[in-house]
């Protein structure tokens, strides 16, 4: 025989043994104790019994009946439970409060056709009423009936055969309570089809009176009872059949017919299967279902994972004598459970997502945005898993609450996923721009190494395409389908825009590089050609000319030749520049600015070349050469051998004066024809309107071109100042004098020899 239940200290469930130890629940769990306290360990028990994840796939049965009518014994036989039963010798009340246990016979109790007991049957053994110990205490009877009706699908009414027909008996009192309490529930819960099955198990059924007759007697009594109770307004004409279905079963005497008792118990147990309503059958006769007793309409629709919380709430209302409002209780339960499920689901979501969030935050903090691999997959998986898990569990609860909480969950996940998505786009943007710029530069460098004949425009186009594809790929792989925020058109457009800006900047750089190359070319060309012109000055016979008039036209047009060389060289350079620049898609404005800069810089190159040639030493040397050439050679270019008869002085004076004319000539850059400075201002042209400050920044000012510089074109074209000219004149004359003296001496010397 089963051992005694664990001793319960008043209301202190937690103090009794280890409540998470399955051994603590040998007799099931005491849901309500004799002090009407609800046991907080109910949920633990349901978890241990693996009922919690069952959803709606569980069933609740309560047993009712007078004290010591073998209720616990019956349940133990039907469901393999171990509810305490009264020992034959003591005859004392054993079941106290309400006990609950899971069916232990589900697996073993099956028929040949494969039909077996329903899954997860939970049985509540309710303390018997009208017990000797409780006397006239109707309070607990009422409360436990209310509790059982609010939760159970099937109420087993345990009754002795000899009690049938005893209308005044204790059982009728109990049933009256059940009916009243049921109506009470219906007042608040009019919209739910709240049906229950009253399953009469007639004990010590002898069989002399057929079960059918007992059944009729009972149904008649119940109808009479129903008629006698006062019904709330609107329900006056209702019948018990509006709320209850009935079934009957006779069980033989356990002690006298032990074998039959066991056999019939097993047969009866098999009735506890899932069933469905058969419209052809007659409910009034107790025939209505096909299959087992559990019709879907009996189910209270409380998901298994919310059952203990719901039961506790219900009991709390009952025990405090509050009106039991099931819809409200269900809504409260939904809120509680949906919140709980939401929190659970968010734990899984956090596990999948937090690492990415941390990584992204850290990368941003370090200023090194990083495209996170696997982010899209993780986000999609985490989101759908969270929503699916939430849906699976929470959708069983009150629809309105569920939908509200689902939206809340979606808000929570999506706020974070959206931030991650945008972080990813931002990282793709930043690293993409950086990579693009690097790639273009690298390709240009390679092109330069290979001889510089690369197509800049093609490089930029190719890298732009690659870059856009990469961005799109990252964005696409991070999209979370079915969300409104997973759109990146705008970001893509922004990215494309910045690529274009970077391209323009790189093209400007490329233009600069091209410009420097062309400038260097100008420099070397001018260095050579202008150098030759200056060298020619050293020869008094340069360019050939009429010696008679003592003036050489070639010297007079020196600057014209320099200017022409300059203009032609730069024109050539401009052609080179334009050709190359147009090959990399530079705009007309960009080319204009480039040419304008080229002209200005070229002028600088020429100016520097002139200055180099005209340092005092260089110039003095040239003047001296020029003079000696004129003095020492005759018109045919034959060196003179001075004789005393020669007009050395005359020749000297002419040569010296001729060379001296070079000083004012060289002092100013002037064209012979107009004796005005070359039209440098017109030649350079106006600053193009598209030139940026950056374009002008590194350009030295040019007198007469940049008006606001306060320097005139005249000044720009002045190569030697007055002081230098005078100094040069004096020094040249001294040098010339030396040559003259030397010539004089050699003439005399020649004579003496
Ligand atoms: P409960 O108080 O209704 O739960 O009754 P119990 O299951 O504790 O049983 C009360 C007493 O009735 C025990 O002494 C049982 O042995 C006895 N009993 C159990 N089943 C039967 C039965 O089928 N017929 C009779 N006459 N006695 C039974
Ligand atoms: Mg009992």
Task: Describe the structure using short key phrases.
753 residues; alpha/beta; Rossmann fold; two-stranded antiparallel ribbon; 7% strand; binds guanosine-5'-diphosphate; binds magnesium ion
What does this entry show, briefly?
With 753 residues, the protein is of the alpha/beta class. The protein contains 22 helices and nine strands. The chain folds into three domains: 22-324, P-loop containing nucleotide triphosphate hydrolases (Rossmann fold, 3-Layer(aba) Sandwich), CATH 3.40.50.300; 334-487, no CATH class; 505-752, no CATH class.
Can you walk me through this structure?
This protein has 753 residues and is of the alpha/beta class. The protein folds into 3 domains: 22-324, P-loop containing nucleotide triphosphate hydrolases (Rossmann fold); 334-487, no CATH class; 505-752, no CATH class. The chain is built from 22 helices and 9 strands. It has helices at 42-48, 71-79, 138-151, 170-188, 211-228, 258-269, 304-319, 326-365, 375-394, 399-449, 456-478, 489-538, 553-556, 558-583, 588-613, 616-632, 648-660, 662-667, 680-684, 693-697, 713-716, 722-752, and strands spanning 29-32, 59-65, 98-102, 121-126, 154-160, 196-203, 244-250, 275-277, 289-291. The strands form 2 sheets. A 7-stranded mixed beta sheet has the order 1-3-4-2-5-6-7, with helices on both faces. Strands 8-9 form a two-stranded antiparallel sheet. Helix 4 (170-188) links the parallel strand 5 and strand 6 (196-203). Helix 7 packs across helix 8 and helix 16 (616-632) runs parallel beside helix 22. The longest helix is centred in the middle third of the chain and has 51 residues, at 399-449. The radius of gyration is 57 Å and the shape is rod-shaped. Residues 1-16, 131-136 and 542-553 have low confidence and may be disordered. The structure holds guanosine-5'-diphosphate and magnesium ion (MG). Residues 71-72, 94-95, 125 line the site of magnesium ion.
């Amino acid at each position: 025989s089963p051992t005694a239940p664990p001793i319960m200290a008043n209301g202190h469930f937690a103090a009794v043994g280890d409540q998470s130890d399955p051994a603590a629940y040998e007799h099931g769990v005491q849901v309500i104790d004799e002090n009407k306290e609800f046991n907080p360990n109910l949920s633990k028990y349901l978890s241990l019994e693996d009922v919690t994840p069952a959803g709606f796939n569980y069933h609740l049965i309560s047993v009712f009946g007078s004290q010591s009518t073998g209720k616990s014994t019956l349940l133990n036989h039907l469901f393999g439970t171990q509810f305490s039963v009264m020992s034959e010798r003591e005859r004392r009340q054993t079941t106290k409060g309400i006990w609950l246990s899971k069916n232990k016979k589900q697996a073993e109790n099956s028929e040949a056709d494969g039909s077996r007991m329903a899954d997860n049957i939970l049985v509540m053994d309710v303390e018997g009423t009208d017990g000797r110990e409780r006397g006239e205490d109707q309070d607990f009877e009422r409360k436990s009936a209310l509790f059982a009706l609010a939760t159970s699908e099937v109420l087993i009414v345990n009754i002795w055969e000899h009690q049938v027909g005893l209308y005044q008996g204790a059982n009728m009192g109990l049933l009256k309570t059940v009916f009243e309490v049921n109506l009470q529930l219906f007042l608040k819960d009019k919209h739910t089809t709240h049906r229950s099955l009253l399953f009469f198990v007639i004990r010590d059924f002898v069989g002399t009176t057929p079960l059918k007759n007992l059944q009729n007697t009972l149904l008649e009594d119940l109808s009479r009872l129903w008629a006698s109770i006062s019904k709330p307004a609107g329900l006056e004409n209702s019948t018990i059949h509006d709320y209850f279905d009935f079934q009957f079963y006779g069980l033989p005497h356990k002690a006298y017919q032990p074998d039959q008792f066991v056999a019939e118990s097993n047969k009866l147990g098999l009735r506890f299967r899932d069933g469905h309503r058969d419209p052809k059958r007659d409910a009034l006769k107790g025939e209505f279902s096909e299959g087992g007793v559990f019709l879907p309409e009996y189910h209270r629709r409380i998901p298994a994972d919310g059952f203990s919380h719901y039961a506790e709430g219900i009991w709390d209302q009952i025990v405090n004598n509050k009106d039991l409002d099931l819809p409200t209780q269900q809504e409260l339960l939904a809120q509680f459970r949906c919140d709980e499920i939401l929190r659970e689901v968010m734990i899984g979501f956090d596990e999948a997502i937090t690492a990415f969030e941390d990584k992204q935050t850290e990368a941003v903090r370090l200023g090194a945005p990083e495209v996170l691999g696997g982010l899209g997959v993780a986000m999609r998986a985490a989101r759908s898993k969270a929503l699916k898990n939430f849906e699976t569990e929470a959708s069983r609860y009150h629809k309105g609450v569920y939908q509200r909480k689902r939206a809340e969950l979606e808000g929570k996940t999506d706020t974070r996923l959206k931030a991650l998505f945008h972080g990813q786009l931002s990282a793709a943007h930043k690293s993409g721009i950086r990579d693009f710029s690097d790639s273009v530069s690298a390709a240009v460098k390679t092109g330069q190494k290979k001889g510089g004949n690369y197509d800049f425009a093609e490089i930029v186009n190719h890298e732009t395409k690659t870059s856009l594809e990469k961005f799109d790929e990252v964005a696409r792989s991070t999209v979370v389908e079915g969300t409104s925020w997973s759109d990146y058109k705008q970001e893509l457009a922004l990215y494309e825009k910045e690529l274009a800006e970077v391209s323009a900047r790189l093209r400007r750089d490329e233009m600069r590089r091209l410009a420097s190359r062309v400038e260097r070319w100008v420099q070397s060309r001018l260095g050579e050609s202008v150098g030759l012109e200056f060298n020619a000055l050293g020869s008094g016979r340069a360019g050939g000319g009429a010696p008679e008039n003592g003036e050489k036209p070639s010297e007079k047009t020196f600057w014209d030749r320099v200017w022409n060389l300059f203009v032609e060289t730069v024109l050539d350079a401009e052609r080179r520049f334009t050709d190359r620049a147009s090959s990399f898609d530079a705009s007309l404005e960009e080319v204009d600015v480039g040419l304008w800069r080229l002209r200005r810089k070229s002028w600088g190159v020429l100016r520097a070349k002139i200055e180099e040639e005209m340092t005092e030493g260089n110039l003095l040397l040239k003047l001296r050469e020029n003079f000696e050439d004129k003095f020492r050679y005759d018109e045919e270019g034959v060196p003179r051998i001075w004789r005393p008869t020669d007009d050395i002085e005359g020749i000297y004076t002419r040569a010296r004066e001729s060379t001296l004319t070079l000083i004012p000539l060289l002092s100013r850059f002037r064209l012979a024809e107009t004796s005005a400075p070359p039209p440098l201002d017109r030649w350079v042209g106006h600053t193009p309107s598209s030139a940026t400050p950056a374009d002008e920044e590194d350009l030295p000012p040019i007198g007469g071109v940049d008006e606001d510089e306060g320097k005139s074109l005249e000044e720009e074209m002045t190569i030697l100042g007055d002081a230098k000219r005078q100094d040069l004149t004096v020094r040249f004359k001294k040098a010339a004098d030396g040559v003259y003296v030397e010539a004089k001496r050699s003439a005399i010397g020649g004579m003496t020899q």
